[in-house]
């Protein structure tokens, strides 16, 4: 928060390779800051911070209109096709401390493809890495962002039915983070509509946390 009428929200993206992290980051920023493409290998090799333009009058707080700016930290996917777990962890740890050490992190988004089940050792390792990076309070500052959510509708599922039939790994994770999740749809919506809907849900979660942040040293 730089003044009473402006709020800066800090977000970090985590997820497995080709989960749609960088694409989701671009939607949040309303830009193309992060390289994003289909690839048989990991595309993101380094942490990168992107900043959005100012969103005037996005919300009200204390009877005043608030101008919002989003800062998003994109991180290498894990498991990574080239980098070791130790390298990814060190890269992300340094980036969190550098960018959010003082201002703090409002929310970590675990990006997960809706059309790929979350299960197995790779998923467990990713969640463990997030826990280690964010510390003991990670559950209060983490939400799942489901990309490719249009695949759910194409398969004839509602969001509730999809979550009801999800893997035990996903259900356990959702319950541990107070069932904080967001669905990102591409079909039938403009990029701006997607962005506003996702940001509104993110702000609901941050408000539930009373705008508290995680800090890093």
TrEMBL record:
- InterPro entries cross-referenced by the UniProt entry: G_AIG1 (IPR006703), GIMA/IAN/Toc (IPR045058), P-loop_NTPase (IPR027417)
Name the Gene3D superfamilies for this protein.
Answer: P-loop containing nucleotide triphosphate hydrolases (3.40.50.300)
PANTHER family, alphabetized = GTPASE IMAP FAMILY MEMBER GIMD1, GTPASE, IMAP FAMILY MEMBER-RELATED
**Family of this protein:** Belongs to the TRAFAC class TrmE-Era-EngA-EngB-Septin-like GTPase superfamily. AIG1/Toc34/Toc159-like paraseptin GTPase family. IAN subfamily.
> Per UniProt, which keywords does this protein have?
GTP-binding, Nucleotide-binding
Q: Which domain of life is it from?
A: Eukaryota
Q: Which organism was this protein described from? A: Crocuta crocuta
Q: Does the keyword Membrane apply?
A: no
**Pfam families annotated for this entry?**
AIG1
Q: Which GO terms describe its molecular function?
A: GTP binding
Q: Where is the AIG1-type G domain?
A: 6-217
Q: Would you tell me the protein name for this molecule?
A: GTPase IMAP family member GIMD1
């Amino acid at each position: 928060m730089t003044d009473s009428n402006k709020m800066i929200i800090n977000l970090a993206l985590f997820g497995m390779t080709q989960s749609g992290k960088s694409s989701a980051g671009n939607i949040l920023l309303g830009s193309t800051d992060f390289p994003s493409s289909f690839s048989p290998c990991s595309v993101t090799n380094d942490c990168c911070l992107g900043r959005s333009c100012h969103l005037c009058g996005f919300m009200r707080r204390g009877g005043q209109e608030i101008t919002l700016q989003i800062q998003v930290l994109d991180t290498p996917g894990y498991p990574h096709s080239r980098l070791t777990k130790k390298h990814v962890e060190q890269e992300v740890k340094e980036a969190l401390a550098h960018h959010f050490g003082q201002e703090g992190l409002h929310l970590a988004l675990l990006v997960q493809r809706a059309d790929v089940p979350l299960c197995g050792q790779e998923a467990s390792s990713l969640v463990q890495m997030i826990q280690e990076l964010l510390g003991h309070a990670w559950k209060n500052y983490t939400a799942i962002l489901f990309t490719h959510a249009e695949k759910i509708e194409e398969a004839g599922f509602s969001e509730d039915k999809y979550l009801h039939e999800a893997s035990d790994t996903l259900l356990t994770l959702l319950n541990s983070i107070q069932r904080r999740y967001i669905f990102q749809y591409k079909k039938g919506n403009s990029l701006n509509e997607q962005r506003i809907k996702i940001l509104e849900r993110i702000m609901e979660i941050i408000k539930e946390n009373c705008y508290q942040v995680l800090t890093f040293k």
